[in-house]
Amino acid sequence: MALDQSFVGRSYPPTDPYEVGREKIREFAASIGDPNPAYTDPEAAKALGHPDVIAPPTFVFAISFKAAHRVIHDPELGLDYSRVVHGDQKFAYRRPVRAGDRLTVTTTIDAVKSLAGNDILDIRGDVHDETGELVVTAWTKLVARAAEEG
Amino acid sequence: MTSKVAYADVEVGTELPAQVFRLTRATLVEYAGASGDFNPIHWNEKFAKEVGLPDVIAHGMLTMAEAARVVTDWAGDPGAVVEYGVRFTKPVVVPNDDEGATVEVSGKVAAKLDDNQVRVDLTATHAGQKVLGMSRAVVRLA
Question: Does domain A5-21+55-144 have CATH number 3.20.20.370?
Fold first, then answer.
């Protein structure tokens, strides 16, 4: 069943703050095998002009996607998550995420489409720091494959 | 936010150093823990096959993270990345052995933009097939 078009433009209230920790960034960088010292050494990060260690570009997805769960599991929307695959992912950065940030995410449904029986959902997460400045915007396209006939 | 690459030294067509990334089951488990993505298609063979996959597959976001390294290693400062986007076109199947799967990533400068920024187009392949499409990053150079 096609998703309700009236959800386009709907925004969800900001999440509680996520505090970005140095050790969490270190753990994430290790998991992707990336030895860049900007992720682990505050002095190396400062030499590049950052006030503290920064996070790899895709680190913020864990935060934005968790916020997107409120859309995915919104009973009014009725998305069948068992059929969902991640189609596209994009980020636009005003500055890198860094240790000490307290980030909140405001999630908005940018588009709802139906294509050949597949439901396509474009979700935008605007990630702000504790001063209210926009840090990064994350766009996530989810595709719910058509249910099999039968 | 100071890239070690100068805008003036770069032309459309400039190639970034290519890299090969190896993903094993251990890599996927470590990434699951660090990212909080515990979807069993990334670690449970039985579950993956039940939902129609050939075997356990890598997290798309892990492939996206590895592909970014071609850009961040080149730029020097990962904070120089202004935009980054990909389309997940094919899964990376990771067998349960010591070899795992390899993803080859190359990149080249596709456009010089205003404000010392360039667009880099990335190509990521596994077993000879593209696993990311529309894989593009905008980077601010020195």
Answer: no
